[in-house]
Amino acid sequence: MMPIQNSTYQRPSTPVAQLRGHADGPIHIIRFTGDGNYCLTGGNDRTVRLWNPTRVDPAYRPPLSTKLSSQEYYARQYSQSYGDDESTQQQQQHIPSALPMQTYSEGHVHPVHAITTNSSSTMLLSSSDKTIIATNLVTAQTVQKWWGHTARIEYVACLGGGDENNNTNVGEEIYASASYDATVRLWDARSKSKEPLMILDDAKDSVSCIKSGGSDIITSSIDGNIRTYDLRTGKLITEDVSHPITSFAVSNDGRSIASSCLDGVIRLFDKYNSLHRIDARKKVFQKFHSLHKSGNYKLECALTSNDEYVVSGSECGAVVVYPVQDSVEGGSMLRRHTAPTCSVTCCPQSARPWLIASASYDGSAIVWASQEVAHHCMEE
What we know:
The structure is a single chain. This protein has three helices and 28 strands. By secondary structure, the protein is mostly beta strands. The strands form seven sheets. A four-stranded antiparallel beta sheet has the order 1-28-27-26. Strand 19 and strand 20 (about 265-270) form a beta hairpin. The longest helix has 9 residues, at about 70-80.
């Protein structure tokens, strides 16, 4: 991974919108769609909601005023310069509501803990306890359901994503689910069969996260291991991190992995490469732990689209942004949430590395941007 030179222009730092609409209760998960144009949230209210995170909801009326629209209030807020205490500004400033686009509730009879879309952003994949639900993102109609896990599903993924000809939808019909039952199951969306294509049962504890890396399937587990299934060679490569892993992110250049562990440390290390000898692999080459608090909750981490920053949730409610390369600016804590912030996501668009979003147990979801673009990134 070779991040570009750090720039405060690209560092997320300022709350620009809130995703308002879920009923009372935690928002468990937040994700950008595969194309990076929209956001999805899954909540305790048993719904998945679609948002335009950079467009102001014209129907929302800010508190203490019934005369100003959300856009007018937003423009007035950002016409004022920031004070010296940025964290105080974040806490005191009201931010506008992002535009809600669609609500998906069909089939969800339990709180939603896992969501994703395919790379073309046409299909929503979500979980309802032990059931996987595929929904057409445009029509909101349920397409298919699968079940078979014996414990709650913690993560879902659409496999595929590219081949040597840069066809980004290759393998999109294969879905994967990771569960507390310590298994990963692969499902064929093209088949009418409800039986999984394959069950990966090598984990000794709950499987917390799963990603697709070209011809690889990468999983993490509370047993402290990152497992890479090389589908071309049929090999299983196990990386012992020695600490329970709650989440991991693969760099956008595909060369590195950042793993968030229950000991409060995010470890950055080289991703398995079948062209290199395993014993020559570089081990952990960077750790991040000075600002975020972890130990009791499953926290997510993510990498910005330019691989320049690691973003993490924290049990103190902050969103923490660490620069990947050593920098005089150090990490930063973004304060808006009042309960543990367990889910974070970064916009996958290369042109918007400064755009991220977070969701918290306090029932709020916040969109963040760099301070330099905060005043003009929201469309009215």
